[in-house]
Design goal:
Layout (H helix, E strand, L loop, with lengths): L1 E4 L20 E8 H4 L4 E2 H20 L3 E7 L2 H12 L3 E5 L4 H8 L4 E3 L8 H8 L7 H12 L17 H4 L21 H12 L4 E2 L11 H15 L23 H6 L4 H13 L5 H25 L28 H13 L4 H15 L3 H11 L5 H12 L16 H7 L20 H12 L1 H4 L6 H8 L4 H16 L4
Parallel strand pairs: 1-2, 1-5, 2-4, 3-7, 5-6
Helix pairs in contact: 2-8, 5-12, 6-12, 9-11, 11-12, 12-16, 14-18, 15-16, 18-20, 18-21
The structure holds iron/sulfur cluster (SF4).
The site of iron/sulfur cluster has 14 residues, from helix 13, helix 17 and helix 18.
Length: 500
């Protein structure tokens, strides 16, 4: 018998080595690594999501006739060794893992590693695309992907709808008033397997935070497919216009909330994009919504995957801005805050292990960059706190996009913003005790104070960057710059003390 060793983010019969597995000739190994579980402070829903999905997948494979060995072991390596000692397989076959460290583990073992098909662009294809380009522009990669994969393309090679990009239609501020037109996500009932997983997390002493699972996140292929249908039928038509908006009254708006399933294999990227393409062809979805979603998946998501492999392992130690502060207690859920935007994002994170991309980038990530938090600490925190976290997702998104710690390899300017941007794209500021326009004084918006301070602190680095030079020069000319710098020092201390 051969063994197919399946990692916890490869939970699909059509991924890599499993695609050719047969119950008559293949046994399946899944390892629950306690070292991984206790390695960081996971959001409770994230830890449950992965473990419950692994165990359900093991049950599905058993139902399909496979012998499945689920090993709980100190490490992946220890689980592998125990399996080999118990079963003496003729060969152990593994699909390429999604992490650099996972690949390092496999290189030291007697296993056959087969190519992963979990992404539409394998990282060696991405490296081929990157070639010797000076700047790896996501837009260029996205168009290359569209052309070669054929999503939203016309027979003459032109993009459907006559444009590659519908961002202008998709960056609208929140709708006025209390309109809440966004369909709520589906939920499943928790069952005995879910309760067993939660009990095991406690018994193992896994340090978790956040609310218990409430059934929002599917943990089986069947339920994930149902989430996909729900998204395409009820949510996707509204996906585009308010993609970047943030409102107190809805934690999900028209976001797909499908990323966790694609990231652990419960859904395949191709089937998700096919469903969106078909909905567009049926006339059920406007082009800006279809294009906006396809862009996120075959553009941004695959670009992040490719850059992770291209730039690892050095990339994770990048810290171009020399940021060295600790994550403030409010972001660990250990302190309350009067910053209404942060309080809202943290409440959503606590309750759902989720924030959408603008909340991550322009509220939480913006705050950590302006404050000067160590970028690896931010990466680890987002990785362990979000339902869709993984090193390959978080490293480029945090080190590159959000914290500008790579010095511009990914983003040509830092995504720094004061209260004005947050006010434009959300309804948070109206209910906040801070004044988004004020830079100094006890009521000054911390984002606004820290934003001007950031531009001033990093003047020399950014004053020649055409995308941000104007703001840097404006900071230089502020009449109250000294007072801003002083207030920023106070804000930092208050943030560190959990008193802002
Ligand atoms: Fe956030 Fe400042 Fe707006 Fe308050 S005023 S919600 S702290 S951006």
């Amino acid at each position: 018998m051969q063994t197919v060793w399946v990692f916890g983010d490869q939970l699909n019969r059509r991924i890599g080595a499993l695609a050719d597995a047969d119950p008559a000739t293949h046994r399946i190994l899944l390892v629950e690594s306690t070292a991984k579980l206790v390695s960081r402070r996971w959001h409770r829903q994230r830890a449950h999501f992965v473990l419950a999905s692994m165990r359900r997948f093991a049950n599905e494979l058993r139902d399909a006739g496979f012998e499945v060995d689920v090993r709980r072991a100190a490490t992946l390596r220890a689980g592998f060794d125990a399996h080999v000692a118990a079963h003496d397989p003729d060969e152990v076959i593994v699909t390429e893992p999604a992490s650099w460290d996972g690949l390092e583990v496999l290189r030291a073992l007697d296993v056959t590693v087969v190519r992963s098909n979990q992404f539409l662009c394998h990282y060696d294809e991405f490296a081929g695309w990157a070639g010797d380009r000076k700047q790896l522009k996501m837009e260029d990669f996205y168009r290359w992907q569209r052309r070669r994969l054929g999503y939203l393309m016309e027979p003459d090679g032109e993009p459907t709808g006559g444009r590659w990009n519908f961002d202008d239609e998709n960056r609208q501020p929140p709708p006025k008033g209390n309109a809440n037109p966004w369909a709520p996500p589906q939920r499943s009932e928790l069952d005995d397997l879910d309760r067993e997983v939660l009990a095991d997390l406690d018994a193992l002493g896994v340090d978790t935070w956040g609310a218990d699972p409430d059934g929002t996140w599917a943990t089986s292929r069947r339920a994930a497919l149902s989430r996909l249908r729900h998204f395409v039928d009820h949510v996707l038509p509204q996906f585009g216009p308010h993609e970047d908006a943030m409102v107190e009254r809805s934690w999900h708006l028209a976001h797909s909330v499908l990323s966790p399933y694609m990231n652990i294999g419960l859904l395949l990227v191709g089937e998700v994009c096919d469903a969106v393409q078909e909905a567009y062809e049926r006339g059920d979805v406007p082009i800006n919504s279809a294009e906006g979603f396809i862009r996120q998946v075959i553009g941004w998501r695959e670009y992040v995957w490719g850059t992770y492999w291209l730039w690892m392992p050095d990339y994770r130690s990048r810290n171009a801005l020399g940021a060295d502060r600790a994550l403030p207690p409010v972001l660990r859920g250990d302190a309350d805050t009067d910053m209404n935007c942060v309080a809202n994002c943290m409440a959503t994170l606590h309750d759902h292990a989720y924030n959408h991309h603008i909340q991550r980038l322009m509220v939480l990530g913006n705050l950590t960059m302006l404050h000067g938090v160590d970028p690896w600490e931010v990466t680890e925190w987002m990785w362990s706190s979000f339902i869709d976290g993984a090193e390959w997702v978080m490293l480029p998104n945090v080190i590159g996009m959000s914290q500008w710690a790579d010095g511009g390899m990914m983003a040509t300017k830092p995504y720094a913003a004061g209260g004005n941007y947050i006010d434009k794209m959300s309804d948070y500021c109206a209910g906040c005790r801070y004044d988004r326009k004020a830079r100094v004084g006890d009521d000054a918006c911390p984002f606004t104070t820290l934003y001007w301070d950031f531009l001033s602190r990093h003047h020399d680095r950014f004053v020649k960057n055409p995308r941000i030079a104007r703001q840097v020069r404006a900071a230089e000319q502020l009449g109250d710059l000294l007072a801003v710098r002083e207030r920023a020092t106070t804000v930092r201390v208050l943030l560190d003390d959990g008193k802002l």
